[in-house]
Amino acid sequence: MEMERTYIMIKPDGVQRGLVGNIVQRFEQRGYQLQALKLFQADEALLRQHYCDLVEKKFFPDLLSYMLSGPVCCMVWQGENAVKMGRQMLGATNPQESLPGTIRGDFSIVVGRNICHGSDSAENAEKEIALWFKDGEVVSWEDHSKAWVYE
Ligand code: DAT
Ligand code: MG
């Protein structure tokens, strides 16, 4: 079994629109294990690190002001293939291409207000978890439903 962690973040629009509970519920219902959760106001330095691959893009200033516009909800979810499945649950980056049933496909219309972030590789997930959480904020715990979720 490929147990993996992913960093999932609800962006300021998702928090403002009251979608935190719905998004947490989707991951819980699927069987993923919550290991960290906090509401957090990001600053520019943190976002420049988080989006280091995108700082040269034309849309970066808009992305930065969007991500600074209010608190985000930072989460760590663990489970089999959590990175890939997490991205599937989020849906395509551009909501115009996100399928219904995905978070973006159910709740958003434009790429600049696409509700959520999910790590794109296991390696980046570990980097993002270290970037957004301090020691002690991520909790490893025994999940009693595990035997009912996995063979
Ligand atoms: P994802 O968030 O699906 O991993 P990404 O890492 O390529 O996508 O981009 C990060 C965010 O930047 C994305 O969620 C929304 C914004 N973005 C990406 N491409 C964009 C574009 N062409 N125009 C405007 N915003 C864009
Ligand atoms: Mg990305």
UniProtKB/TrEMBL annotation:
Question: Any idea which positions bind ATP?
Answer: 11, 59, 87, 93, 104, 114
The EC number(s) given in the record are 2.7.4.6
Chloroplast is among the record's keywords: no
Short name of one Pfam family: NDK
GO molecular function term, any single one = nucleoside diphosphate kinase activity
Instruction: Give GO BP annotations, semicolon-separated.
Output: CTP biosynthetic process; GTP biosynthetic process; UTP biosynthetic process
Q: Which SMART domains match?
A: NDK
Q: Which residues form the signal peptide?
A: none
The cofactors it requires, by name, are: Mg(2+)
**Active-site residues from the entry:** 117 (pros-phosphohistidine intermediate)
Keyword Ribosomal protein attributed: no
List, alphabetically, the InterPro entries matched.
Answer: NDK-like_dom (IPR034907), NDK-like_dom_sf (IPR036850), Nucleoside_diP_kinase (IPR001564)
Keywords of the record: Kinase, Transferase
Per UniProt, residues of the Nucleoside diphosphate kinase-like domain are: 3-140
- Which NCBIfam families does its entry note? PRK00668.1
Q: Which family does it belong to?
A: Belongs to the NDK family.
HAMAP family, per the entry: NDP_kinase (MF_00451)
Can you name this protein?
A: nucleoside-diphosphate kinase
According to the entry, what is the taxonomic lineage of the organism? Eukaryota, Haptista, Haptophyta, Prymnesiophyceae, Isochrysidales
